[in-house]
Q: What sequence folds into this?
C-alpha cells in the first residue's frame, strides 16, 4: 500500500489531484481511495487530501497519518506546523517552487524534489493551477503507474482545449524531475 | 464494471437508475455533491424528472410529500441542520405512510458548528417513523439506495439511507454502478395505492380523534417491525441480481466463536475490519454492524451476541445528559439473552474527529483491563477542559 498526503490551498485543485491519482490507479486495475480533510471551505485556506493505492481492497477510512509521499502545492505551506509530520523513513517530498531542490533541501534540512509547477501551469494552461503538473512529476519519480493512466484520468475530467493544454503541461512537467528517483520506495510499498 | 467515482457521484447515479419522477432538494454540506450531480443529470437530459430547487429543506420535504401523494416516485437528500429543519415534515411523511427515499449525508449538528461527520442528525429523527439504513461503504450506498425504493414501496414507509458525510460522500473509490436493466428488473414502475385522484376523493392528513389515534400509531409501529422482512428480502433479491449483498439487517464478520465483539453503524466498520486483520495477535474478535437501526433488529442482534462476554458499542452520536443512544437500545435488547454480555458504550468520531486504526487495540485493552464504566466519549482530552467540565 502506498499512502500519499497532498497539501495545498483552496482553489489549487487539491482534491482534484487526489481524485485524479486514485482514478489513474483504479483504471490500471489497482485499488485506489482518495478523500479530503477540508478546513475552512474558501480559496487560499490550507487544505489536505489523502490517497491510498494498494493491490487489494482497503476498507479503512482513517486519515493518512504516516504518508510514504508528500506533495506540497505551495512552498509557503512548509511553514504550517504539521505539514511534514509522519512522513515514513525514506519517504519523498515533492514541492511546488521555483527554488532548486538543493537550495530548498538545505533550508529544510531534508531531501526534497522541487518542480516550478505554478510557472509551468501559467505557461501551458494560462492559469496558476499546479496540481496536474505535480501529479505528472510524482508519477515520473515513482514510476508506479504509466503516464497514460494519468492522461486517461485527465480525459475523464477535462475536454477539448483544457485537456490538450493539460496534456502538454504534464509532458513538460514529467521531464523536469529525475525519472525513477522514488521508484524503489514506491516498489517497496507494493505499487 | 468498477469505476473510480466519488461517493456522491455514485449515489446520484444510483438515484437516477431508480427513475424518480420528482426530486426536490436544498444543498447543504456534505450532501451538496449528490444533489448537484443529480441536477446535472437532469440538465444534461440523462434523467427525465421534475427537479425542484426549493428555498429550504422544509420545502424540499414538503414537495416530495406532495409529489408522492400525487403518485410520483420521489427523492430528496439533506444533512445536519437540514434534517432538523425537515423534522416536522419527516414525521408527517412517515405518519401518512408515504413511500419516499432520502439520503442523509450524516453530519454533526450545531452548535458548535461543524460540517464534518457524525450521526447526530439521523439519530435526532430516529423516532420520526422512517426506516433507517446505515451504509458501510459507497458500494453499499449505491445498492442500498436501489433497495430502499423497493422497501419503501412495498411497506408504504419512507426510507432514510444514512451515508457518512465526507468519509463516504467525498471519498473516491472503485464502485460498481449496475446496468439499467438490472435496476428495472428489481424495481418495476410503482403505483401508490392511495394516490390522490379527484375522481376518487379521499382525505389525507386529517385530524384524528383520541378514538383512533393510538390504533394509527400501533399500525405504524407494527409496519416498521414488519418491514424487517422486506429489508432482508430486498437485500437477498438484489444480491441475486447484482451479486452483492449489503448484509440485510445486520452484518457479522470475524471470528464467530469470539467472546468479544465490537458493534458499529456506518463507515467506521471498515476501519475496524482492517485493524482486526492487522492485529491477529489480539485474539478472536467479532465485528457486528447494524445496517438497520429502524426497525431495530432485536432478534438478529441477540443471535449475533449469543456467547459473548463483552460487547463494545461504538456510536457517533450521544444523548447529552443521558448517554449513548445505540448503547441504550442494545442493552435493552440484550436483556433477552440468558447470559447477556457486558456492554462498554463509547461515542467516537464526533464532529469528524478521525477514528484511527489504533482505536482497535486500545478498545480491546480497555475491555480486557476494566469492567464497563458509564457511557463515555472515547479519546476526549479532558486536559483541554476547565476542571468543572471534566
A:
Amino acid at each position: 500500500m502506498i499512502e500519499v498526503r497532498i497539501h495545498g490551498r483552496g482553489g489549487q485543485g487539491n482534491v482534484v489531484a487526489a481524485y485524479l491519482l486514485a482514478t489513474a490507479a483504479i483504471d490500471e486495475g489497482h485499488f485506489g481511495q482518495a478523500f479530503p480533510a477540508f478546513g475552512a471551505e474558501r480559496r487560499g485556506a490550507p487544505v489536505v487530501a489523502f490517497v491510498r493505492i494498494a493491490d487489494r481492497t482497503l476498507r479503512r477510512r482513517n486519515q493518512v497519518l504516516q504518508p510514504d509521499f508528500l506533495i506540497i502545492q505551495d512552498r509557503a505551506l512548509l511553514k504550517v506546523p504539521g505539514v511534514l509530520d509522519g512522513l515514513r523513513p525514506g519517504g519523498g517530498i515533492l514541492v511546488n517552487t521555483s527554488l532548486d531542490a538543493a537550495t530548498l533541501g538545505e533550508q529544510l534540512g531534508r531531501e526534497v524534489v522541487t518542480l516550478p509547477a505554478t510557472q509551468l501551469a501559467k505557461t501551458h494552461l494560462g492559469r496558476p493551477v499546479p496540481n496536474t503538473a505535480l501529479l505528472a512529476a510524482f508519477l515520473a519519480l515513482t514510476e508506479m503507474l504509466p503516464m497514460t493512466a494519468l492522461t486517461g484520468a485527465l480525459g475523464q475530467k477535462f475536454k477539448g482545449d483544457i485537456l490538450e493544454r493539460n496534456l502538454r503541461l504534464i509532458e513538460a512537467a514529467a521531464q523536469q524531475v529525475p525519472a525513477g528517483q522514488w521508484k524503489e520506495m514506491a516498489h517497496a510499498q507494493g505499487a | 464494471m468498477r469505476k473510480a467515482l466519488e461517493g456522491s457521484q455514485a449515489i446520484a447515479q444510483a438515484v437516477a437508475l431508480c427513475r424518480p419522477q420528482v426530486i426536490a432538494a436544498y444543498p447543504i454540506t456534505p450532501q451538496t455533491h449528490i444533489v448537484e450531480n443529480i441536477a446535472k443529470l437532469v440538465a444534461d437530459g440523462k434523467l427525465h424528472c421534475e427537479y425542484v430547487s426549493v428555498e429550504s429543506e422544509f420545502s424540499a420535504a414538503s414537495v416530495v410529500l406532495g409529489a408522492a401523494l400525487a403518485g410520483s416516485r420521489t427523492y430528496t437528500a439533506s444533512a445536519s441542520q437540514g434534517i432538523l429543519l425537515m423534522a416536522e415534515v419527516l414525521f408527517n411523511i412517515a405518519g401518512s405512510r408515504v413511500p419516499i427515499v432520502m439520503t442523509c449525508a450524516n453530519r454533526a449538528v450545531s452548535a458548535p458548528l461543524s460540517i464534518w461527520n457524525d450521526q447526530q442528525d439521523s439519530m435526532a429523527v430516529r423516532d420520526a417513523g422512517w426506516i433507517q439504513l446505515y451504509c458501510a461503504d459507497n458500494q453499499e450506498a449505491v445498492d442500498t439506495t436501489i433497495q430502499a425504493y423497493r422497501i419503501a414501496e412495498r411497506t408504504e414507509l419512507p426510507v432514510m439511507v444514512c451515508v457518512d458525510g465526507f468519509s463516504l460522500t467525498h471519498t473516491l473509490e472503485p464502485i460498481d454502478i449496475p446496468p439499467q436493466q438490472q435496476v428495472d428488473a428489481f424495481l418495476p414502475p410503482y403505483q401508490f395505492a392511495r394516490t390522490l385522484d379527484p375522481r376518487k376523493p379521499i382525505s389525507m392528513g386529517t385530524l384524528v380523534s383520541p378514538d383512533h389515534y393510538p390504533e394509527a400509531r400501533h399500525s405504524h409501529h407494527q409496519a416498521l417491525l414488519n418491514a424487517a422482512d422486506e429489508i432482508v428480502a430486498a437485500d437477498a433479491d438484489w444480491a441475486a441480481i447484482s451479486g452483492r449483498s449489503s448484509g440485510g439487517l445486520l452484518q457479522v464478520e470475524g471470528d464467530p466463536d469470539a467472546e468479544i465483539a465490537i458493534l458499529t453503524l456506518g463507515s467506521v466498520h471498515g476501519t475496524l475490519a482492517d485493524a482486526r486483520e492487522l492485529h491477529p495477535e489480539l485474539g478472536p474478535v467479532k465485528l457486528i454492524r447494524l445496517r438497520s437501526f429502524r426497525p431495530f433488529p432485536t432478534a438478529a442482534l441477540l443471535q449475533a451476541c449469543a456467547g459473548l462476554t463483552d460487547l463494545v458499542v461504538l456510536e457517533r452520536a450521544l444523548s447529552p445528559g443521558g448517554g449513548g443512544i445505540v448503547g441504550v437500545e442494545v442493552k435493552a435488547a440484550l436483556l433477552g439473552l440468558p447470559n447477556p454480555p457486558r456492554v462498554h458504550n463509547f461515542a467516537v468520531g464526533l464532529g469528524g474527529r478521525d477514528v484511527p486504526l489504533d482505536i482497535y487495540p486500545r478498545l480491546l485493552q480497555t475491555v480486557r483491563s476494566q469492567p464497563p464504566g458509564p457511557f463515555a466519549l472515547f479519546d476526549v482530552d479532558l486536559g483541554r477542559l476547565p476542571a468543572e467540565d471534566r
In short: Chain B touches chain A through 28 residues (CB under 8 Å). Residues 2-242 of chain B form a domain with the Rossmann fold fold (CATH 3.40.50.970). The first helix of chain B runs from residue 7 to 17. The CA atoms of residues 362 and 368 of chain B lie 10 Å apart.
